[in-house]
Every structure is written in structure tokens, then in C-alpha cells.
């Protein structure tokens, strides 16, 4: 049984990684996907397999509104996937080429990321006319991210998600001079959570500015963290001077690997000069999580019974409950019912 959720929007790549008149191959949810951008900037996504002989269409070329297969020159319209030309045909052939079609995917470009929607045609009544909106960051409008980093994790998407949302691993995995310094000082954390659409959120609160980078936002910094299926985590920081947001999206490649997209947005006018440094630190931060999860796989191959025991693990338990309810609602073709209730979580960190 697959663990990968469908009927969801997933980030496929950052907008900056897809230039005009280019095409890119991606593997998402164990499917071969061709993503492209026409000369006019419009994006498209289609199955990256030619139905003629099976060669990936991404080896071909983009010609205005068509993808031309490099093997035999078959052309497919990028908007609807229909075959528009088979060069080898003669006037004696009566084949209706328009009946040959490559699957296309709904895709949208929002706030600096390219999203693709994966419809489960076998279990869902979802159609192109009733797709849910693309997830967006509230209060940031059309602002594009200052930096975006992408990293592959060699693990199932579930372990990446619960690893990145884990509130107790920070002192052990992310202990660096530029983030936290000095001996570990553990204290009880008490956070208020409530359900949101297909997820939950940490209710905004004013935080003590103990981590150095937060101080650039001002003296009074509030934090709000929202998690929503299939794997979208939004961390919004608002100070009395500036605001910032860390958007983390986790996209499955297949059952045993996934891709992490981390975008940072800010309203700080002079922060652009620090982009190279911020990119470096973001990559280091993600790499610390990745390395720990890679090490975790060496124990998971023995299929141990995992112990989610205290309030620090509650968000992980919530994730599995949300996912189970989502899969059940899809199978039964009914409305999703959020199983999470408001609660105060406490843990030492």
C-alpha cells in the first residue's frame, strides 16, 4: 500500500530554477514529470513518457506550444497533451493523431514556487474545475522568497516530515555558534495548539529573543507555526520592525526518498546583501537534519516499533492521525474531518 497522498498540491521546483523556453525532468510521487516554461513565461506539466516508444519527452525540445520527441519527432501540445503531428505518416494513413494523448497536470506558480496537483483518478471526484486553491503564505502577497534551497532526503516522506516538525531535536542537531551558544539550558516549553484546515497550528505568542537571528526583526517578536497536509510547514515571525517567513514543503520522489524545498521570505529592505550567507546557513541547517535522518535509516531497516511517548512527540502523532483521516475520506469520497482538538503541549528543550 502506498504511503503517498494524492489529490494534493506539491511543490515541484523553485521558480528561479525554470528559465523561459526550458524543460526539466522530475520524479514526483513515483511518476515521471516533465515541467516546462514557454517563452511567454507560462508553465506546464505533463507525463514525461512518449506513448510511441517510451522515451522520456524531456530528451526532446520545446517548439512554441509543442514538445517534440527526439526519437521520431512526434509532437504533443503542452496545454492539453494531445498529439499534434507524427512526421512519419503519409497521405495514405487515416490515423487521428489528436486521439493520442499524454497526461497533463494542473500546475501554478505562486510566491516563487511551482506547484503541481496530483489527481487520484481512481478514487476521487476531484476534477480540473473544482481543484482546491494552491497553498499560500498569508500577509506576504506576491512577495517572492529572498532565498530558496532544495535538498534530497533518502527516506520515506513520513520520516522527513516528523523529523522536521520535531520540537525536541534542536539542541542536539542544530547546535551552532551562530544560532545558540554556551551550555544547554533546558526548560519546560508550554505551547498552545489548535486545528486548522487539514492540519494544526501553534497559536502566535511573543517569544523571548534568545536566538540571535530573530533580533533583526525587532524587540517584540511573535511566532506562528502552521502544519498542513500533505507536508507544508509555515513559520511566520513578526517583529515590531520587520516580518519573515520560513516555508518548508516536503515532496515525495517515491516511497524511499523525498525532496525538501525551503523558502525564506522577508520584509527587511537591506537583507538582500546577506543572501549568500543566508543560503549557506540554510543549507547547513537542512544538512544537519538530513544527516540525522540518513543515520536513522540504518536502524529503521530492522522495522523497530517506534515509541512516540510524550508531548514532544504529539505533533508526529497528529500527523499520522491527519494522514489516516485524509486517506479514509478520499476512499469514502466524503469531507475530511480534522481529528485534532485544541490542546496545550509541554516538553523540556
TrEMBL record:
Domain Rieske span(s) in chain numbering:
10-116
**PROSITE patterns in alphabetical order:** RIESKE
Q: Which Pfam families match?
A: Rieske
Which InterPro entries does UniProt cross-reference here? Cholesterol_7-desaturase, Rieske_2Fe-2S, Rieske_2Fe-2S_sf
Q: Please name the SUPFAM superfamilies in this protein's record.
A: Bet v1-like, ISP domain
> Which keywords does this Swiss-Prot/TrEMBL entry list?
2Fe-2S, Iron, Iron-sulfur, Metal-binding, Oxidoreductase
Domain of life, per lineage: Bacteria
Q: Can you name this protein? A: Rieske domain-containing protein
